[in-house]
């Protein structure tokens, strides 16, 4: 088939796979290099146009992805076809494309000072501060005196390993690492070490700075990305530290805020570019379960004797269940959920722990279900609640395994590494007579 056989449907599938894998893994998987000139513009993000076109060809019936040597990505070939399909293709974009997986990988590889034997928290605290600002929709770029005041105070209050309140160090380090933009410079930023030279440079330059636009937009609009980045920072740099006061100060210990989305982009044909396709939803589900299990492992490592409220883990678990439900009540005997939706246009569903946490249940999607208000009421106080809990516990375990299996099936179909097989060991259990009424209005 020719490039002209590729439609918007195949392009959208390739874009979703790009988002799922991240730019570097996507290009490596399909044998493309980073675009030197032409980038596809979609929903406020940029994608390597030739690679997207080549991979899109593989979504045509009976066809395979094209390699870089199979066709031309120039203005008279792939670019022309993308523009005919109604896409904007930029000739030059100064900022690199950034997807969730790539941002998380870059955060996990931060080069921080470890001279004390433990990682210094300058950069992690700075990123959490910037993430909280993106969540609230505050200005991306701030004048240096304002950054110095706000970030310096945060470091002073929460430097859990003795970090001094000097924002110049983490800002310079993040700038060199490609995560922080500095504007208005007349001289290159120095290396992020030493003292006098670095302070002098910031005093003289007075830069305006903040997260790069792609990182800010991703954290602003994607709750999944926020959860993944916060989890990566906490697991990588805050081991054995009580980070709750820091997250509370930043407004990141609020489950409602963490899960809030800033809205979804509309495609050019007027439809909503929603992430809940079965493939992408399954990948998100797997990532959210990974966050939940990280937090459970951390609790076990600390020999916790009782469940500790952790909105990051709980929020990830609830969001995973809502994605898994695909907007429908998970009670197989549901008589019909309300046709009404929330102000955001989402189904009215309540996420429930089938087994109460205080009686040994897990804050994990394998023991949680999404219920309509009617079914939730029956499960809470109905005369048939005991038998319903037994059914729901089985349904939760089965749907959890099925959701993870979907990731493996999709990976196999596309020639990608499959995730480790899901285990149901410890998933099912005897439902308790108590009930947890944790509600999420998605």
Automatic annotation (TrEMBL):
UniProt keyword annotations, A-Z: Endonuclease, Hydrolase, Nuclease
This protein's record includes keyword Hydrolase: yes
Protein name: HNH endonuclease
Highest taxon above the source species: Bacteria
CDD domains per record: HNHc (cd00085)
InterPro entries: DNA-SBD_ScoMcrA (IPR058813), HNH (IPR002711), HNH_nuc (IPR003615), ScoMcrA_N (IPR058807)
One GO molecular-function entry: endonuclease activity
Region feature (Disordered): 297-338, 419-442
């Amino acid at each position: 088939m020719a490039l002209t056989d590729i439609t918007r449907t195949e392009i959208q599938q390739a874009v979703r796979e790009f988002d799922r894998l991240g730019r570097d893994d996507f290009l490596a998987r399909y044998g493309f290099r980073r675009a030197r000139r032409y980038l596809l513009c979609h929903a406020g993000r940029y994608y390597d146009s030739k690679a997207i076109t080549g991979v899109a060809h593989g979504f045509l019936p009976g066809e395979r992805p094209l390699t870089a040597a199979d066709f031309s990505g120039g203005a008279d070939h792939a670019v022309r076809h993308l523009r005919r399909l109604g896409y904007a293709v930029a000739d030059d974009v100064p900022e690199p494309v950034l997807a969730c997986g790539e941002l998380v990988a870059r955060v996990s590889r931060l080069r921080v000072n470890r001279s004390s034997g433990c990682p210094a928290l300058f950069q992690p605290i700075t990123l959490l501060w910037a993430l909280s600002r993106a969540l609230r929709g505050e200005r991306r770029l701030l004048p240096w005196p304002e950054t110095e005041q706000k970030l310096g105070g945060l470091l002073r209050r929460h430097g859990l390993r003795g970090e001094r309140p000097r924002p110049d160090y983490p800002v310079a380090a993040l700038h060199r690492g490609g995560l922080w933009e500095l504007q208005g410079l007349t001289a290159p930023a120095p290396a992020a070490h030493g003292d006098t030279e670095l302070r002098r440079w910031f005093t003289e330059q007075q830069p305006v700075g903040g997260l790069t636009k792609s990182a800010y937009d991703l954290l602003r609009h994607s709750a999944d990305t926020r959860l993944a980045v916060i989890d990566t920072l906490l697991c990588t740099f805050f081991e054995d530290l009580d980070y709750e006061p820091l997250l509370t100060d930043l407004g990141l210990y609020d489950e409602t805020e963490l899960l809030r989305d800033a809205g979804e982009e509309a495609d050019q044909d007027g439809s909503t570019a929603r992430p809940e396709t079965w493939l992408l939803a399954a990948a998100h589900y797997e990532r959210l379960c990974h966050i939940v299990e990280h937090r459970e492992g951390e609790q076990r490592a600390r020999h916790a004797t009782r469940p500790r409220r952790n909105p990051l883990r709980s929020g990830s678990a609830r969001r995973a269940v809502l994605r898994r439900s695909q907007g429908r009540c998970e009670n197989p005997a549901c008589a019909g959920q309300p046709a009404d939706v929330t102000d955001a246009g989402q189904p009215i569903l309540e996420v429930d722990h089938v087994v109460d946490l205080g009686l040994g249940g897990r804050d994990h999607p394998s023991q949680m279900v999404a219920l309509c208000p009617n079914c939730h009421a029956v499960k809470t106080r109905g005369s048939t609640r005991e038998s319903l809990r037994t059914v729901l516990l089985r349904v939760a375990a089965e749907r959890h395994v099925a959701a993870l299996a979907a990731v493996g099936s999709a990976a196999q179909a596309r020639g990608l590494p499959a995730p480790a097989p899901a285990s149901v060991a410890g998933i099912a259990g005897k439902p308790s007579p108590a009930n947890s009424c944790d509600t999420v209005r998605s």
